[in-house]
Amino acid sequence: MDKLHKKLNDLIESLSIEKQAQIRVHLEDLVSVHPFNEYEYIISVLLGMDKILIDDYYQIRDEYIARNMYLYIFEISAPRYFGETWAQGHLKELIPDLVKPTKKLDNDYSGQYDFLLVYDKKNIRIEVKASRAVDLDDHGALYVKALASDSNKNFWMNFQQAKPACCDVFVLIVVWRDVIKYWILSSKEFEQNGYYSKGQHRGNVGEGQLHITQDNIREFDKYLCRSDKLRDCIVDAYDVAQ
Fold first, then answer.
1. Record's superkingdom (predicted)?
2. Which of 12, 62, 165, 241 has the most C-beta neighbours closer than 10 Å?
């Protein structure tokens, strides 16, 4: 949104002083009701003043969509729906071989992990955690404070209610407004990470959380995995931990 705002503001400032003032005055009194807002107004006025052509509008629109491909995910307001329904469904689409565990497949299963992946006649137990990058200093709605992957703003991701003893591999899904990234860690790597803290909730033995901010995120680059290599990365993480 910052880039769109700057681009439109630059276009306004290229107008005559009189036309700039005209737009600024209207913006001060503008009432926004979806889908009509300040951006729609500015673009309409610039088109009407022949400052931009329809092809310019298409370019602005296409560039914005490319920068905000996953903004819709920030509109998911229910944390549990995002963390479970969306995240698990998204991963299942990328790795069709994943299966939901049952007592028939694992006698000890009681809901403590999310997926099984059959590998070398063994079942790899997989836990899925997801988080969204948002501006830590903005108290607006999620989709308003959603960050792009190249943002320098402060953020804090918290992968909660993690139980390393109950799975073999963690798949961490991180969503920015322009990209989705995947980190694959063995349960051992997850638990021994310096940013993992145990004892999230009183009485929940073996449960903890992993904290990632703008200051330590680069330390997780070694766990990055391409979306088309996720199955291989899960197997590799499992093998390394054995």
1. Bacteria
2. 12
Quote the CA–CA distance of 208 and 161 in Å, as a whole number: 6
The DSSP secondary structure of 116-127, one letter per residue, reads EEEETTEEEEEE
Does residue 28 sit in the same domain as residue 128? no
- Specify burial of residue 200 (Cβ count, 10 A radius: 0-12, 13-18, 19+): middle
Walk across the sheet containing 196-198 and list its strands.
156-162, 208-213, 196-198
End position of a domain, from candidates 67, 96, 120: 67
Query: Closest by alpha carbon to 112, among 204, 190, 197, 240?
Result: 204
Q: Fill in the amino acid letter for 92.
A: K
**pLDDT tens digits, 154-211:** 999 999 999 999 999 999 999 999 999 999 999 999 999 999 998 655 555 678 999 9
Task: Give the domain extent around 20.
Answer: 2-67
